[in-house]
Design brief:
By secondary structure, this protein is α+β, with helices and mostly antiparallel strands. It has a domain of about 90 residues. The protein has a two-stranded antiparallel ribbon. Helix 4 packs antiparallel against helix 5. It is rod-shaped. One of its GO terms (molecular function) is translation initiation factor activity. Pfam families: IF2_assoc, IF2_N. It comes from Enterobacter agglomerans. InterPro entries: DNA-bd_dom_put_sf (IPR009061), IF2_assoc_dom_bac (IPR013575), IF2_N (IPR006847). This is Translation initiation factor IF-2.
């Protein structure tokens, strides 16, 4: 998680760095432009600014955050496919409004769960389709090769049988042909069963891998309090005094 410094915070809220350093100092928090700023220090500064402008209880603290992550899933040919996931968050705190804060936290948690579930569903579906297509291509290629070999052997046997002068040789050749055809049919059946088994196994393994990766991402996302400390930014909303600009 990237630390928020005084300098980056000043840029985010469009305030000169020197002014923000002075505001922290006035709030009793000595800072330099490269010092990190914690969430507690942000709240302390906000309270100080509220008191300074006579806005106790009315100022708002708006925190914005955008996170990106990549979910890698196995693809064809041993290569990985990447699914980009982006979660955007914006939270506005009204001082003393604990119920609003809780409601926002729940909404963000729900949005995160939905994004995670959607990413997992898409990854599993994509992996399943790719596995099915690959297995289907392999099965079709194998069936074509076997059919071509069978036709070639049959043609050779037919030519051989035609050249035999006796009925005994013809019957033997026909019997041998029938045997080979039966063997070829059995081989084709076994090949189709093996292809179907590989398809089902590949789809299962890919789905399990996608689910595992999604669960790992879920474990990383389930740390909202730690991430909030580094990625939120402060803005202040100060109404103009009566009669002012």
């Amino acid at each position: 998680m990237t630390d928020v410094t005084v300098k980056s915070l000043a840029a985010e809220i469009q305030t000169p760095v020197d002014r923000l350093v002075q505001q922290f100092a006035d709030a009793g928090i000595p800072k330099s432009e490269n010092d990190a700023v914690t969430q507690q220090e942000k709240e302390t500064l906000l309270s100080h600014l509220n008191r300074e402008h006579g806005q106790v209880g009315s100022a708002k603290l708006t925190l914005q955050r955008k996170t990106r992550s990549t979910l890698n899933i196995p693809g064809t040919g041993g290569k990985s496919k990447s699914v980009q996931i982006e979660v955007r968050k914006k939270r506005t705190y009204v001082k003393g409004d604990a119920e609003a804060e809780q409601a926002q936290a729940e909404a963000e948690a729900e949005a995160q769960r939905e994004a995670e579930e959607q990413a997992q569903r898409e990854a599993e579906e994509k992996a399943r389709r790719e596995a099915e297509q690959k297995a289907q291509r392999e099965a079709e290629d194998k069936a074509r090769r076997e059919a071509a070999d069978k036709a070639k052997r049959a043609a050779a046997e037919n030519e051989k049988v035609t050249n035999q002068p006796t009925d005994e040789v013809t019957r033997a050749a026909q019997s041998d042909k029938a045997r080979r055809e039966a063997e070829a049919a059995e081989l084709k059946r076994k090949a189709e069963e093996e292809a179907r088994r590989k398809l089902e196994e590949a789809a299962r393994l890919v789905a399990e891998e996608a689910r595992r990766l999604a669960e790992e991402k879920s474990a990383e996302w389930e740390k909202p309090e730690e991430e909030d400390k580094g990625d939120y930014h402060v803005t202040t909303s100060t109404p103009c005094p009566s009669g002012g600009r």
